[in-house]
């Protein structure tokens, strides 16, 4: 039987520019699957594990900048999407989730693969809809069309995941003699509003700006934007104030940018850093990795804190927000240069940049040490990644090392990390989604726990020849040795660090990847000479390290920074 209202979903998606769908196999979802597979303008991929499928779809949407459709059958399959949906919600990545369901009269009747799917994702989606079951009346067909348009517009306009639950009655497979067609459907376009600020508001902001000499900009997680990069560069050049950027801000190539803040804002250096506190703080982006930066700004509150964002979400994670300015950041900084005069203090800018340079010099010296650790290995790999690569960092230590070491210089790389929820799940899958979306090299830096947790990311039939995975295997959650609380407990190894004996070789064999393994700097450098070369399949480089030594070396690095500031 042809369920035309289901097939029309694919047509509306295609008309809105949705080009990709990730599907997990199932029977109740057959009509949805066939609708997207048979639509000539949509590329589909089948991923068996729903948890991996959702992160792969998220990785694709992150690269494409538009929603990717995500389709599964009824029951627990829908629940397996939840971690990726929460991550997409906090990263503001568009997704269109289509879950097949039993008709409502069968809910809570102990029927197979039947759970309560309506609003299943709660507050982690921008909107949730239930499709009509019966569509004999013309109003019901109009309702179906309206729902799909409304959902897609919400996902694109507000940037995030939306959910349509689709109850479907049997029969849902077309007969062999039935022809599927995709007639023209109604498309409701949502034209975005280009917001700007009135002249009176600019004048008000200008007066506040003139009242401060210690002014600073802090950049949280953002996708790379060339217009924003240009606007920030011109702004910084005219305003003469420090720009402090986490590695996930994707603004690491800004001239004079401060990126070593996690190292020099160490609480043990508070007496040195007290004069760095801004009285006017401007923030943009989402989460910050650096705990030291967050604590410093919370403990040394600015008089004025402006957050610049086009999002509706109020981000007050530093606890001292005074003004939420709802405007696209590139518009704000581009217009600010024209409307507001006056520079910051050169001596204040110099203080931040001097602290940044002290760390940079000490770090370069420290990396020459002969004791092998994952910190040293991480630096060695990061320095040779390909130009214009998409760099993905898993939680927990991988992204922290990246933020401390800094992005590769002059390589035009883009950086991604699942810092919306900061979980270790889905790191492999997000990188796989990125690799499936483009030909650019995709490089994943991950620890062993995150890697093994998400091995099903590779369980499909698609070639990932542009993917390179570097696994830092210290055989457990090494981060817990570096946190004061768990490292002091007698249960550290078994209940926090979770020691494990696995290596990545069998995973590489299972999925036909090239595999390399090393445990010293010489072998690592030898492998790195060819590791990023073009190949017919993905590659895994596993770097074996000792957790106790890693902890010891990282502590030595922190001491080296303290000594550099005492000198």
TrEMBL record:
GO terms for molecular function: 2-succinyl-5-enolpyruvyl-6-hydroxy-3-cyclohexene-1-carboxylic-acid synthase activity; magnesium ion binding; manganese ion binding; thiamine pyrophosphate binding. The keyword Chaperone does not apply. Residues 420-534 form the Thiamine pyrophosphate enzyme TPP-binding domain. CDD domains: TPP_PYR_MenD, TPP_SHCHC_synthase. Gene3D superfamilies: 3.40.50.970, TPP-binding domain. It catalyses: isochorismate + 2-oxoglutarate + H(+) = 5-enolpyruvoyl-6-hydroxy-2-succinyl-cyclohex-3-ene-1-carboxylate + CO2. SUPFAM superfamilies: Thiamin diphosphate-binding fold (THDP-binding). Residues 9-117 form the Thiamine pyrophosphate enzyme N-terminal TPP-binding domain. Its cofactor is Mg(2+); Mn(2+); thiamine diphosphate. Its EC number is 2.2.1.9. It is an enzyme of class 2 (transferase). Pathway: Quinol/quinone metabolism; menaquinone biosynthesis; Quinol/quinone metabolism; 1,4-dihydroxy-2-naphthoate biosynthesis; 1,4-dihydroxy-2-naphthoate from chorismate: step 2/7. The keyword Zinc does not apply. Pfam families: TPP_enzyme_C (PF02775), TPP_enzyme_M_2 (PF16582), TPP_enzyme_N (PF02776). Keywords: Magnesium, Manganese, Menaquinone biosynthesis, Metal-binding, Thiamine pyrophosphate, Transferase. GO terms for biological process: menaquinone biosynthetic process. Belongs to the TPP enzyme family. MenD subfamily. PANTHER family: 2-SUCCINYL-5-ENOLPYRUVYL-6-HYDROXY-3-CYCLOHEXENE-1-CARBOXYLATE SYNTHASE (PTHR42916), PROTEIN PHYLLO, CHLOROPLASTIC (PTHR42916:SF1). Homodimer. Catalyzes the thiamine diphosphate-dependent decarboxylation of 2-oxoglutarate and the subsequent addition of the resulting succinic semialdehyde-thiamine pyrophosphate anion to isochorismate to yield 2-succinyl-5-enolpyruvyl-6-hydroxy-3-cyclohexene-1-carboxylate (SEPHCHC). This is 2-succinyl-5-enolpyruvyl-6-hydroxy-3-cyclohexene-1-carboxylate synthase. It comes from Roseivirga seohaensis subsp. aquiponti. The lineage of its organism: Bacteria, Pseudomonadati, Bacteroidota, Cytophagia, Cytophagales.
């Amino acid at each position: 039987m042809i369920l035309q209202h289901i097939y029309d979903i694919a047509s509306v998606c295609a008309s809105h520019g949705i080009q990709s769908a990730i599907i997990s196999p199932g029977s109740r979802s057959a009509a949805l699957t066939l609708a997207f597979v048979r639509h000539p303008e949509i590329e589909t991929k089948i991923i068996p594990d729903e948890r991996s499928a959702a992160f792969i779809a998220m990785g694709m949407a992150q690269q494409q900048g538009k929603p990717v459709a995500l389709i599964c059958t009824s029951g627990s399959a829908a629940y397996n999407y939840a971690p990726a949906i929460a991550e997409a919600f906090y990263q503001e990545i568009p997704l269109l989730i289509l879950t097949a369901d039993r008709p409502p009269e069968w809910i809570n009747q102990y029927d197979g693969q039947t759970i309560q799917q309506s609003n299943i994702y709660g507050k982690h989606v921008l909107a949730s809809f239930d499709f009509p079951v019966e569509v004999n009346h013309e109003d019901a067909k109009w309702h179906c069309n309206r729902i799909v348009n409304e959902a897609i517009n919400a996902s694109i306009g507000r940037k995030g995941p939306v959910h349509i639950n689709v109850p479907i009655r049997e029969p849902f497979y077309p007969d062999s003699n039935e022809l599927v067609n995709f007639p023209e459907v109604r498309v409701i376009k949502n034209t975005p509003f280009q917001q700007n600020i009135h002249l009176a508001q600019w004048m008000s902001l200008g007066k506040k700006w003139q009242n401060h000499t210690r002014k600073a900009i802090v950049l949280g997680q953002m996708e790379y934007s060339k217009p924003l990069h240009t606007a920030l560069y011109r702004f910084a050049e005219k305003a003469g104030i420090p720009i402090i950027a986490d590695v996930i801000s994707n603004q690491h190539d800004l001239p004079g940018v401060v990126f070593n803040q996690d190292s020099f804002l160490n609480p043990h250096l508070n007496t040195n850093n007290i004069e760095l506190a801004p009285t006017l703080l401007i923030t943009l982006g989402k989460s910050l990795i650096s705990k030291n930066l967050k604590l410093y700004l919370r403990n040394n509150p600015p008089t004025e804190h402006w957050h610049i964002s086009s999002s509706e979400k109020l981000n007050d994670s530093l606890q001292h927000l005074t003004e939420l300015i709802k405007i696209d950041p590139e518009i704000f900084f581009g217009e600010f240069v024209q409307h507001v005069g006056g520079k910051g203090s050169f001596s204040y800018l110099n203080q931040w940049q001097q602290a940044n340079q002290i760390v940079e010099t000490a770090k370069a010296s420290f990396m020459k040490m002969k004791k092998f650790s994952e910190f040293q290995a991480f630096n060695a790999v990061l320095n040779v990644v390909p130009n214009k690569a998409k760099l993905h960092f898993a939680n927990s230590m991988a992204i922290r090392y990246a933020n401390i070491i800094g992005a590769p210089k002059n390589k035009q790389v883009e950086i991604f990390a699942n810092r919306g929820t900061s979980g270790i799940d889905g790191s492999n899958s997000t990188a796989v989604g990125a690799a499936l979306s483009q030909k650019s090299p995709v490089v994943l830096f991950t620890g062993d726990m995150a890697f093994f947790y998400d091995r099903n990311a590779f369980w499909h039939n698609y070639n990932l020849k542009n993917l390179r995975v570097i696994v830092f295997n210290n055989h457990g959650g090494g981060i817990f040795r570096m946190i004061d609380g768990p490292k002091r407990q007698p249960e550290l190894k078994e209940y926090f660090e979770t020691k494990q004996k696995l290596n990545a070789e069998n995973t590489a064999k299972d999925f036909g990847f090239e595999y390399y393994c090393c445990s010293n700097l010489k072998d690592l450098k030898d492998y790195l000479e060819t590791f990023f070369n073009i190949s017919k399949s993905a590659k895994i480089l596993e770097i074996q390290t000792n957790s106790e030594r890693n902890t010891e070396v990282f502590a030595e690095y922190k001491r080296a920074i303290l000594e550099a500031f005492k000198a």
